[in-house]
Amino acid sequence: MSRHRAQPPRRRSPASPHRHAAAAQPRYGRIGVVAVSATVCLVAMLGGFGVLPSVAGPSDRGGETDVARDLTGRTGGSGLAAIGDKAVLVLDSAQDEAAAGSADDSATAGAAGTAPVEEADPPEVDPSADETLPADSGDGYRVVFSEARQRVWLVDGDDEVVRTYPVSGSLYDNLDPGSYEVYSRSEQAYAFDGSGSMKYFVRFAQGDTGAAIGFHDIPVDNDGRLVQTRAQLGTPQSHGCIRQEREDAIALWEFTEIGTEVVVV
User: What one-character-per-residue DSSP string does 194-258 give?
Assistant: First the structure.
């Protein structure tokens, strides 16, 4: 019987350390960032030394933002641009549109970069608040009534104003400017249509229908209610006469007599 010699065990060669490792890939992203950063620094240095040609400055082209926007339009994407002695990284189209919008907003805000100031509406002026005696309103002892300012002045013989106050004249502007005289006085009077009554009536003119026009206090209706508020004095409210606060009506009643001049301006 022949004998078979056992074969010696085969030796395995050591595994290569790179056999199962994935092939290394170059990191292009990082390389690109480093390259761009280096380029920016280089361009900035060259611009600082005056090596790069200068692009028209803000005074020639309307500002650095406009120049950057022009260069972006030409390149159609990201890139570098030299503006004066500065290096500017031009963004891609989407970012550039956002930057351009911000620049336009800043330009609208003003040259100094401040926010636009909204002009406030001018405050409303109450004409009746002007207490200055109207010019060309006569002289001497008199009563002055301004239709435009809805105000009355009691003026003494030395042309000194002894009292002034707001009133409510006619809604229909039925008085012509000029000089009149008091011709009638009634401490108690009634409306011509029977709708109410008034006190301290001092008459100095007549309307187109012959109805008396004069000064009196705020009338009350047949139920005893004021026909207008005191707060409305200073605005036209009546049908022809000049309405006054009760205290002012008493003051004018005591100030005047038949023949006292009334000047309407």
Answer: SSEEEEEEEEEEE-TTS-EEEEEE--EETTS-BSS-GGGTTS--BSSSEEE-HHHHHHHHHH--T
Amino acid, single-letter form, for residue 259? G
How buried is residue 245: exposed, middle or buried, by Cβ count under 10 Å (0-12/13-18/19+)? middle
Residue identified by tokens 């009334």 is 262
Enter the pTM of the model: 0.54
Would you say 46 and 35 are in contact if contact means Cβ atoms under 8 Å apart?
no
Between helices 93-109 and 64-75, what is the axis angle to 10°? Answer: 160
Q: Are 129 and 226 in contact (CB under 8 A)?
A: no
Pairing of strands 151-155, 161-166: antiparallel
Helix, strand, or coil (residue 9): coil
Per-residue model confidence as pLDDT tens digits over 11-38: 544 444 444 444 555 555 666 655 666 6
Element spanning 152, H or E: strand 151-155
